Amino acid sequence: MNTKKYGKILSENLFSNNPVFVQILGICSTLAVTNNFINTLVMASGVTLSTAFSNFTISAIKDLIPRKVRMIVQVLIISFYVIIFDLFLKAFVPQVSKVLGPYVGLIITNCILMGRAEAFAQANPPLLSFWDGISSGLGYMYVLCTIAFVRELLGFGTILNIRVMPDSFLPWTIMVMAPSAFFILGIFIWIVKGPLLQKGGNRK
Amino acid sequence: MNRNSKIYTVLFTFIISFVFILILSFFNGMTIQRTEKNKTLSTMKAILNSMGIEYADDDQAYALFSKSIKHEKKDSLDIYTFSGLSDTAIAVIFNGSGLWGSITGSVAFDKDISMLLGVDFISQNETPGLGGRIEEKWFKDQFKNRVVSEKPLELSKNKTGKGIYDSLSNEIDAVTGASLTSTYLLNIINSYIYKAKKVLGVSRYEH
Question: CA of B72, closest CA in chain A: separation in Å?
Fold first, then answer.
């Protein structure tokens, strides 16, 4: 029964209710960081961890939070974890922190965190909320990584900073710039949502 | 106690902010030493890189820097001098605005500022993948061993995106898609070449 619940949350967050391509949340970072695969991975791990831990904390103290200041407290807790993640990067992997720069701090304003806190953690027990945070983060991660893979390959001719395209390959500058993420995300949604919509149609 | 009363709300908000910020400042205190060390090291490495001095790893960079580089401050310029057996290199820390934020780095010259030895960056907030590519080796290498002439450095008109490595030219190839960052950067470097000449008393261009 319980495992079923966990499985349902996972499949919802990964596919049928994916934060990026179904809820269209967290688009700002989708545009900003996906031109390099490694940066995307670090950024998505930050989002995953922060969502999970802030969900857990919010759920654990939800009965103590006054309704009027609910959102302020959520933002406080989210920023707490994001700043810890940022401090950790600065201290232990300074190169990555240097490249990501302000984007890590901007995880605070990522709509996925606030969305999960408000929609899930406020009404569910801590461990389940933690799992919801992890799976939402993973749902965000694989979509971003797919986009980053395409953008890095066509924009720089590299994968994981290793050159894979032949020397004659001319990099597509547009892939490095933010607008290309719109195209790739659009194509991604088109491919992935087609079957999802069909399934919905059959059910009727 | 009523969870929605004013007093509870104020107290709760105060206590929770206090607790979380306390933990955060504690964590900051734990990592600050490491972070500071990383910062110092990245500055040292940038200065060594700009002078074209090679090192194997962080420890060696640290040792090399502490042993053979002297720091002085003249007219608000941070000047680092390396005295080797046969040559002297001077590095000046530059700082100016890029497209999104300030760009800080080190630009190195030979002892009479007749030759640029190189440029390296300490911090920059340009768009990753666009302006941020000023950190790439092909771009920075363009500044290596350039004769400092009376003409300031400028962006090349024929953009190849491959870099210009002619020591007598004053043209630098811009990062494709980041002409603004490239322009701002050249302005900063030009102004620091001028400042360095002035402060270090190399007056032969002023006659």
Answer: 27
